[in-house]
Amino acid sequence: MKKLLIIAFLVGIGSGLFAQKKFKQKNPNLPYFEQSKFHFGFLLAVNTSGFRMKYDLTTYDSLISLTTANQTGFNIGFLGSMRFNDHFTLRFLPTLSFAQRNLNYVFEGNPKNVTDTRIIESTYVLFPFLVKFRSKRYNNFATYLVAGGSFGLDLSSQFDVNNEVAISKQVLKISRQNYFAEFGIGTDLFLEYFKFALEFKYSHGLNDAFINDGSFWAKPIQEIKPGMFTVSLLFEG
Q1: Mean of the pLDDT values across residues 124-147?
Q2: pLDDT one-digit tens code per residue, 194-212
Q3: Domains and CATH numbers, the chain
Q4: Can you give the pTM of this predicted structure?
């Protein structure tokens, strides 16, 4: 997570310097871009995913801690936007997202504690609808805010797996359907042939996605809500 934030910060600084250079131009790029009501494009993104959990460590006498280790993944998707006016745009971004979270169970041992990691992988098909509020354009640069909601379908969900197997082979079951509230910030850069955007967004899971089937790894967990921080590059024509 820290490495991703550092990379995002450095990219943001680079974009700001690039934008300052563009401010000096007398003839803006794509001067008629905003006269079109509809625009389309694609996105590439890096994500870091985690869980917000509620759990009970007293479930097992030897269980000392239960934590989530965020992991890095990536997104690819399409972009469709409908412009209302100079400041407001409705965006639809169907996205394929690859995510992973590791749950670390630490058990008291003799002579030392034992950590067992359970890996939860997700392949989301996401359907976000976002409202974009953009500042006034200055030559080839503008800033914006986005907010909205998203429905996610986890194609890798193992919700129907039979866990009546050895403990080492049991899996943690996550619901296939997920709902998110999304909000973020970004910058628009109008280049010679297309518009480029750098965006930072957080997706906040709204529903309890955990399916507790009473198996060994599931018993201590009471609730799981997914979350994802995304740094996106958007290309729009």
Answers
A1: 95
A2: 999 999 999 999 999 999 9
A3: 2-236 (2.40.160.20)
A4: 0.83
